[in-house]
Amino acid sequence: MSVPQPPPKDTLDEAEIAARQRYLVLNCVRIGGIATTIAGIAGTRDLVAIPFALAVIITLAGILAFFFAPPLLVKRWKGQDPGP
Fold first, then answer.
1. Furthest-apart CA atoms within the chain: distance in Å
2. What is the pTM of this model?
3. Residues 63, 8: Cα–Cα separation, whole Å
4. What is the pLDDT of residue 84?
5. C-beta separation of 2 from 32 below 8 A
6. CA nearest to 43, candidates 31, 61, 57, 32
7. DSSP readout, 37-70?
8. What does the pLDDT look like over 1-58, one tens digit per residue?
């Protein structure tokens, strides 16, 4: 049994290229949110030399980015897509 291969890049239409780019952006935003949250938590535990209040703000920013940025991006992209 062979593993299906993706089609060559020159056969992809613009909609599929945009979908792949958006998928990549969504995952990068999620990973960035996780990394920011971890950095903030490290700051609250004095593993990183930053003030405690700043560490809490960084942690909250990471949590907000992880949970709320992807749905906001999707909503914005749906508003830009042409209708059927």
1. 56
2. 0.77
3. 37
4. 60
5. no
6. 57
7. HHHHHHHHTTSS-S-HHHHHHHHHHHHHHHHHHH
8. 678 777 666 677 888 888 899 999 999 999 999 999 999 999 999 999 999 999 999 9
